[in-house]
Known about the structure:
single chain, alpha/beta, 6-stranded parallel sheet, 40% helix
Amino acid sequence: xxxxxxxxxxxxxxxxxxxxxxxxxxxxxxxxxxxxxxxxxxxxxxxxxxxxxxxxxxxxxxxxxxxxxxxxxxxxxxxxxxxxxxxxxxxxxxxxxxxxxxxxxxxxxxxxxxxxxxxxxxxxxxxxxxxxxxxxxxxxxxxxxxxxxxxxxxxxxxxxxxxxxxxxxxxxxxxxxxxxxxxxxxxxxxxxxxxxxxxxxxxxxxxxx
Length: 209
């Protein structure tokens, strides 16, 4: 049985899974064009990719960090889409939205973006605690530092290896201070190292695929 996080594996073992029949393989990343260019990261530019739902917590994060936002880019769809779009159109910062774009468009945009990727998961639903969010891996692999909550397991890696910024509460001063302190120098090298560890070809080798 394959789990994509240690937390998910532990829960399955708790529910009766034989540990000898279990393996953890995180969600892997694939880039058609593997390039890791140096970027001048703009800490006032933010981008969000994926589902726009209450569990993904985007609306609440934007509401807190709006004084920091010079530009925000939204790519995705979901039940909270209209609420987020209406909020952004009213706030005076530069705003772009791309509804239901394909994966190729998204990766190309990220690889050419010089912003910060948002992954504001909350605990409104229990699955966020066990998830392995692909968006985080894609942000990092595309040389886009991530700003994320500490809810998903990968947040520990993001904090330890300085792939981005994590927060444990929606507090403006905490997030602002961490953004100001975050060193984006040589982020390209971090992105390439991450991709070398988490591209799906490498991860599939663990399964013998």
